[in-house]
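S.,

Sequence below, as promised.
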Amino acid sequence: MSPTQQGELDPVIHAAARLKITATLATLPVGDRITFPRLQELLDMTPGNLSTHLRKLEDAEYVLVDKEHQGRTPVTYIALTKAGRRAFEDYTDALRQLLGGTA
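The prediction came back faster than expected:
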């Protein structure tokens, strides 16, 4: 995916649900991750809706979805990638520019 022009809003992040996901993941320290159920709970989204939006973010390489097992129980972890964190920072900078602030 090519980077957006300066001042242009990233269409991958711009969708309301994906913006909420990205903003929530951006609050985690670099390298941290969150379980799928916890993210679902924080965002009050259905599993299907969350999965659909995570897939778009994953396709853009903005999030990493890691499926592991704890014993016999599958656990899905979600993390913001370095590219995703950068894209979110660029998005917020572009938004500030559009609103008349400084970038």
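The domain at 11-98 is CATH 1.10.10.10 (Arc Repressor Mutant, subunit A).

Coffee later?
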